[in-house]
Write a structure and sequence with these properties.
266 residues; alpha/beta; eight-stranded parallel β-sheet; 9 helices
Length: 266
């Protein structure tokens, strides 16, 4: 897809093993498609270190988050939090996370998920950094922990797929919302096409979560099923269609919101 607008992919897993052999080409394709700013998601200590390493290769274009996903929280320790604090001192790290709760798969015991989610929220408050969050089937406990520890830092829930009630709760807490290619899925994402209309444009961002969530609205999809940031325009187009707004307007607003949220001085 040819570049027509500047957009920001606020959640892309470029440290994922599926990008090891052609990461540079993937990044160049994204730039050519208008995705000129990308935020690489850190989901473990090693993944956060790799996300930062890749981001440093593209100053002022690629950025990183530093955090431990709830799936990996069983491996978290106080030393992990100290190392995240060290990583976050780098100017290329723009948020703490991906952290939160996942009571759907329970890859880590729930008490550990809760403990280290709370610790990372506290770290974000200490460092005055935005929070990049994950929640699945844990909405009540997620909100309790967040409300108890978070004070002022900007916070976003990425990869939102929840209900109208979930969305209202998050908007009432002043969270920003990330929309992925889930909205392009006619099997599972139809409800999002209505709910996205309820998200204020100054709190709406778009993301691929690549290599996952390949947009099903693509006329020709790669045989290996791998998503990549160059495909973000398909998410943008669907969001714009749902909002009944010009694509250019939604591109401009989501880009402005992303740059403000992550404090990108670019």
């Amino acid at each position: 897809m040819a570049a027509a607008y500047e957009i920001v992919d606020i959640g892309v897993n470029l440290a994922h093993r599926s990008f090891l052999s052609d990461r540079e080409e993937v990044i160049e394709r994204a730039f050519a498609a208008g995705v000129r700013t990308m935020i690489i998601t850190g989901t473990s200590l090693a993944g956060s270190q790799e996300a930062l390493r890749v981001a440093r290769e593209y100053p002022d274009q690629l950025f990183a988050t530093a955090g431990v996903h709830p799936h990996d929280s069983r491996n978290c320790t106080e030393d992990t939090i100290s190392e995240l604090r060290r990583l976050a001192a780098d100017q290329a790290v723009v948020a703490i996370g991906e952290c939160g709760l996942d009571f759907n798969r329970d890859f880590s015991p729930r008490p550990q998920q809760e403990r280290w989610f709370e610790a990372q929220v506290a770290l974000a408050e200490e460092l005055k950094r935005p929070l990049f969050l994950h929640e699945r089937d844990a909405q009540q406990r997620f909100c309790e922990i967040l409300a108890g520890v978070r004070k002022k830092v900007p916070t976003m829930l990425h990869y939102f797929t929840g209900t109208r009630g979930d969305l209202k709760a998050y908007l009432d807490m002043d969270l920003h919302i990330g929309i992925t290619g889930w909205i392009c899925d006619e099997r599972r994402g139809m409800h999002l096409r209505e709910l996205v209309k309820e998200i204020p444009l100054d709190r709406l961002m778009i993301e691929t979560d690549a290599p996952f969530l390949l947009p099903r609205t693509m006329p020709t999809r790669p045989k290996d099923g791998r998503n990549e940031p160059a495909f973000l325009p398909y998410v943008l187009q669907m969001v714009a269609a749902c909002l009944g707004k010009p694509v250019a307007e939604v591109a401009k607003m989501t880009t402005k919101t992303a740059k403000k949220f992550f404090q990108l001085g670019i």
